[in-house]
Amino acid sequence: MRISLIGSGRVATHLARKLSQQHDIVQIYARHLTYAESLASEVNAQAIEQLEHLDPKIDLLIIAVSDQAISQVIQSVPSELAEVLIVHTSGSTHLNVLTEYHQKSGVFYPLQTFSFDRHVDWNTTPLFVETELDDDLAILTTLANSLSNRIYHYTSAQRLTLHLAAVFACNFSNYCYDMAKQVVDAQHVDFSLLYPLMIETAHKATQNDPVVMQTGPAMRGDLNILNMHQNMLEQQGSVDLSDVYGLLSQQIQKKHSLE
After folding, report:
1. Which of 39, 65, 76, 97 makes an SS bond possible with 7, Cβ 3.0 to 4.6 Å?
2. Are β-strands 105-110 and 127-131 bridged in parallel, bridged antiparallel, or unpaired?
3. Parallel, antiparallel, or unpaired: how do β-strands 85-88 and 60-63 relate?
4. pLDDT at 145 > cutoff 60
5. Residue 25 in contact with residue 13, Cβ under 8 Å?
6. Which domains, from first to last, does the chain contain?
7. Secondary structure of the chain as H, E, C letters
């Protein structure tokens, strides 16, 4: 396929690199030309600085920008691309944000966390596709199959639910790791000592129902330990961490009827 991308961030970068192995990346557009040029040089594409310069002789245009920018971008796509399938990559943006302005629209959402310096296992990354037209769904499904072994035809409402759940499973859990590091750093304790525990916890959560795997002082209803931990955080001046600790402990106790 002949594919162009709007965006040069983490999602756009990983998609462009992977797609370029089997498809022709034609153009890369970014708000800053230097960013577009950097990514374009990796995938043998042309960097452009204006949407008006988009080549209409492409099969697919991928909008990989921030959620709040998608509507503005689709309204700025030249009318010459009316027959081109245009998709966004957002987990939390409804398909109708595109279909309001462009009939041949779809969603191509990879459920994964992306960092510039981290390799992505595309074979195991779930890909969610949705389109306005049935013919376009077949095209996107074929493209998705060239990247991943896990393809799903989900609605915008289902995808939004997954995106919300992903914030808990990924973003919030990572912030918990951040808070854990703050705690041990205060006493010059090696954070890497927690790695085996973190890995085992993740493994258990993927192999069992997380509610059954819950452990810890809140699960046991050990008020002495809970109070001691919060006092330690307050004495260290970590009032915010103490508040988070208290809220999470209360929710665990409520979930397991230990209040």
Report:
1. 65
2. antiparallel
3. parallel
4. yes
5. no
6. 2-154 (3.40.50.720), 160-255 (1.10.1040.20)
7. CEEEEECCCHHHHHHHHHHCCCCEEEEEECCCHHHHHHHHHHHCCEEECCHHHCCCCCCEEEECCCHHHHHHHHHHCCHHHCCCEEEECCCCCCCHHHHCCCCCEEEEEECCCCCCCCCCCHHHCCEEEEECCHHHHHHHHHHHHCCCCCEEECCHHHHHHHHHHHHHHHHHHHHHHHHHHHHHHCCCCCHHHHHHHHHHHHHHHHHCCHHHHCCCHHHHCCHHHHHHHHHHHHHCCCHHHHHHHHHHHHHHHHHCCCC
Q: What is the pLDDT of residues 93-137, one digit of tens each?
A: 999 999 999 999 999 999 999 998 889 899 999 999 999 999 999
Whole-angstrom Cα distance, residue 247 to residue 142?
45
C-alpha to C-alpha distance for 163 and 43, rounded to whole angstroms: 29
Residue of 203, 179, 206 whose CA lies nearest to 191: 179
Write out the two tokens for 33: 């030309």
Q: What is the distance, to the nearest Å, from the Cα of residue 245 to the centroid of all Cα atoms in its chain?
A: 26
Tell me the whole-structure pTM to 2 decimals.
Answer: 0.86
> For residue 102, how far is the Cα from the chain centroid?
24
pLDDT band, very low/low/confident/very high, at 257 (cuts 50, 70, 90): confident
Report which of 102, 146, 104 is spatially closest to residue 127, judged by C-alpha positions: 146
233-246 residue pLDDT tens: 999 899 999 999 99
Place of tokens 């988009």: 54
Q: 159: pLDDT confidence band, cut at 50, 70 and 90?
A: very high
As given in the structure block, the two tokens for residue 4 are 């162009």
Separation CA 159–CA 31 (nearest Å): 27
